[in-house]
Write a structure and sequence with these properties.
The chain is α/β, with parallel strands linked by helices. It has helices spanning 5-11, 21-33, 44-49, 70-73, and strands at residues 13-17, 37-41, 58-61. Strand 1, helix 2 and strand 2 form a beta-alpha-beta unit. The longest helix has 13 residues, at 21-33. It is globular, with a radius of gyration of 13 Å.
Amino acid sequence: MKRTAANDARETLISIVDDEACVRESLSSLIRSEGYRTKEYASAEEFLERERWDESACLILDVRLPGIDGFELQ
């Protein structure tokens, strides 16, 4: 099967780390509307606890998070 940009988008996981649920949900909805997969996390610790965190092709991070902030997570 020939790979296309649409196929690549469906396989790409974008992780969103933000402590505000409305921000996570809005970003996730927007990104999914473009065909990407998303996973949402309320904290850096929650993201790091995920078994396969290295699957994310892109991270969208809030820089002001309680505990480990976005800069530290990066």
